[in-house]
Every structure is written in structure tokens, then in C-alpha cells.
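S.,

Sequence below, as promised.
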Amino acid sequence: MLRVPRSRGALSGVILVLLGLWGGLAALVGPYFHFAFTPDKAWSFTAGRVWLEILPACALLVGGLILLGSANRATAAIGAWIAALGGAWYVVGGTLSTMWAASDRLGVPVGGTTRQVVEQITLLSGLGAVAVFFAAVALGRLAVVGVKDARLAEREAAHAEAAPTVETPRPAHDDRPAATGPIPPARADRPGPIQATQPLPRRTGRAPVTPPEQAVPRPAEQTVPPTREHAAPWPPESAAPRAPEPTDRRVAGGSAEDTGSFRRPGEGA
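The prediction came back faster than expected:
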């Protein structure tokens, strides 16, 4: 139940960081525009300016950063309390400084009456009131447990109870008890853990290998009768010469019996 989304205090944290930057820089850079407390000198670190302006500005800055970046309810609440204390010091610090020594006081606002009122509000009391308001808003949001937070916590608790446990193997000589714990859920892109009794997956695209003793005996080779293509060439070499026929052509220059086959002129020369 201590887990909270970072967006729970994001708005208050950003505003507190901006208020802290304004309070610290205005005290050091404001004298350039004659918008400060005496002494009217830029980058002057007097005791009153450090204790009443720079110190609470740092509290607002640190508290806002903790509130902005923490996802834990208790840690974010601590940051909000730090910012609230810094804002409260802006409001009451000027009044309490009147009881200090004159050298440790902040001084008086510079300029006319209207400018002095604006400086008093924007640099001390008004700045502190706004900081306390946003710190209180952040504390209120962190103190309430939302419906979404409760449902998320219940869902995580149920998932942790339903998750199976696996025993970690250990050596035979180890007498320590075996460590058990929930099995993390498998990711979509990674397979889950393979149990001891689960067969290993077979790769696709490869034929299973059969042991030699289980191989199926091949059938006996059969004698194939010779076909026409496998028969002896025709006509055989020992065959008798063919008798001449009337259709045979006679080659010029040859004998009358040379009518067995056609020859081109000059082939037998």
C-alpha cells in the first residue's frame, strides 16, 4: 500500500520547485532591479538574507524534488513536509527576526509604499502561504488510499499467493534447507521454465533419427525384366547383309551391289 504513482504528487512537486527557485534567485538577483530587501546589493549573502530567504528556498526546492521523483508514499510525504516547513518559515521568519540582533535581520523593503507591499508579499509572506498550500495538497493526496491503489494491491497479493513454488536444487552434502519462492511469470517473448517431467521440444523441419536396432529392413531387390530400351542394339553386328530393294538409290561410280545404304558423293574416295 506504500506504492503510489509518481503522478500523484507531480503537479505539487513542480510548483514547489518553481517557488523555491523564485525565492532563492529573487533574493540574489532582485537588487539589480531594486526589488529586494536592504542591503540593495546583488549577490550579497548577509545573515538575514541567508536565514530568511535562501534557507527556506532550498527547503522548497529539495521537498519539491523528493515529491516529484518518489514513488513511495512515505518518502513523498517527507518531501511534502519539508516543503511545508520551508513555506511556514517564509511566513513567520520575518516576524521572529525582529527579536534577533540588528546585524542578523533581513532589513526593510526598498522603493515606495506600493513596491514595499509587493516585495513583502512576493518575497516572504505570500510566497510562504502559496508553498504551504501546495504542500498541504500533496499531503492530502498522499494520505488517501485510492480505489485503484487498493485494487492493485489486492491483485498483486492474489497473484503472489497463486504463484507456484519451485525448489532450488542443492548438493548432497549441503544440510541447509532448500530455498523456495514464487516462479516469476513468463514474458510474452520468452518461454517459461521447462519442468523436469516435460519433454524437450522437437525442432521443426528435421526428420527424427531412428536407432540402428529399430531400423526397418529394406525389401529384397527384385529383378526387373529388360524393357525395349535395355534390349540389344538393332541390327546386330553379326547379321547378314540386306538384299537390295528397288527403292534403293545407286551411287555414281559404285558397283551394282552397293545399294545397301546411301552415300554422299566423294565419301568413299
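Strands lie at 165-167, 180-182.

Coffee later?
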